Amino acid sequence: MFKFDETEADKLAQRYGTPLYVYRENVIRESCRNLKNAFSDIKTRIYYAVKANSNPWILNILKEEGVWADVVSPGEIYLALHAGFPAEKLLFTQNSVSDEQMKYALDSKVRINVESLSQLKRLGLLAPGTDISIRFNIYIGAGHHSHVITGGPMSKFGIDWESTDQVKEIAAEGNLKVKGIHCHIGSGILDAEMFVRAVKNLLITAKKIPDLEVIDFGGGIGIPYRPGEKPLVLKELGRKLSDEYMSFCKDYGKKPELAVEPGRYLVAESGSLLIRVTSIKESRKYTFIGTDTGFNHLIRPAFYGSYHRIEPAVIREGGKTAAVITGNLCESGDVFTRTEDGIEPRKFTPIEEGDLLIIRNTGAYGFSMASHYNSFPLPAEILVKGNESRLIRKRETYDQLLNNIPDF
């Protein structure tokens, strides 16, 4: 029987039901410490992307590990503050932000990371004298899918790095003090050289802005989802980025604090989605193994064609046969064993109706992207440590589907 730390999967399913998001606390803490060790020679802020997993219990673990938080909405500001993050350890980086949303960040004492000239002008009218950060598009993009590439000429994010002089002029007109500079090229990156290329461009821009307090190299560190993928060597990444940073500081004459944004890396491998097989159907082409969840609970395979390892909780004897693992939604695209091009069967040991399956590496962009599509309630979330487990989000009920709906 598959175990989460020292706890068997069937015991968790009996206690909490399925589908169930399971997070291993020790994995989160280990990821935080591994990344900090990669930059141990230089004072470094690690900004966690709250959008990856915004459960306050997870945020509290990260806060305890000394991590800062990158927030992209007023709701994420609210959740991070609720989890105990001090406002000064948050960076607000919202795209297409309104004046009302900026006011929320200002009232919360959270620094705003400006990502358009329009936003910069409006912020100067709203809050002259404010310390701010600037997000630049340094025209390098990378990531595991086109939807997550956040730099380059096709990206909607950031201010063109060739507009640095204009940024300085508008900031001066609004009496805004540029204290930070930032870029982000994408998500799920496993190549250290892509980060180095981006950092070189960001540091060219940084040299044009005096009195910086922090230089945020961005990030988007990936994890190995597919068999055969190799993890990014953090020590190598830390060494290469630190070398670029130290060389910059020598020319700059000051040492702004270094910041990195690991994205999914801190939580992705901690999480699994525990589900139950509800039907097995033979067609002319495939064996379809249906389950009690769908892309309403884990959208990454349907949305990105993303690969997630899927394992039976019990490994039975017998040869492996090809099968397709599907969800329970009224959608043809509701398939977990797929690529961007469509269905891709995988080989499994014998599986029977009623069995438990574990979809791995779902700690990031799993529950946080879940929806009520097909009017299914949202699943529960639990935190496991050793032989202990704790409910950190209750399973929704059908009655809760009517939350915020006025009577008629």
Summarize the structure in short:
This protein has helices spanning 9-16, 25-38, 56-64, 74-82, 99-107, 117-126, 164-173, 192-206, 234-252, 300-304; strands at residues 3-4, 7-8, 20-24, 44-49, 68-71, 90-92, 111-114, 131-137, 159-160, 177-182, 214-219, 257-261, 271-282, 287-291, 310-312, 321-326, 338-339, 342-343, 346-348, 356-360, 380-385, 388-393.
What proportion of the residues is helical, as a percent range? 25-40%
Contiguous helical run count:
10
The tally of strands reads 22
Overall spatial form: globular
Hey, roughly how much beta strand do the residues contain? 25-35%
Q: What composes the largest sheet?
A: 9 strands, mixed
Q: Residue ranges: pLDDT <50 for 5 or more in a row? A: 141-151
Quote the average pLDDT: 92
Distance between the termini: 49 Å
What's the oligomerization state? single chain
Summing up helix and strand content along with how strands pair, one would put the structural category as: alpha/beta
Q: How large is the radius of gyration?
A: 23 Å
Give structural notes.
The chain has helices at 9-16, 25-38, 56-64, 74-82, 99-107, 117-126, 164-173, 192-206, 234-252, 300-304, and strands spanning 3-4, 7-8, 20-24, 44-49, 68-71, 90-92, 111-114, 131-137, 159-160, 177-182, 214-219, 257-261, 271-282, 287-291, 310-312, 321-326, 338-339, 342-343, 346-348, 356-360, 380-385, 388-393. It is α/β, with parallel strands linked by helices and 408 residues long. The strands form four sheets. Strands 3, 13, 14, 15, 16, 19, 20, 21 and 22 form a nine-stranded mixed beta sheet that branches. Strands 4-5-6-7-8-10-11-12 form an eight-stranded parallel β-barrel, surrounded by five helices. A two-stranded antiparallel ribbon has the order 1-2. Helix 6 runs parallel beside helix 7 and helix 8 (192-206) packs parallel to helix 9 (234-252). The longest helix has 19 residues, at 234-252. The model is unreliable at 141-151 (pLDDT under 50).
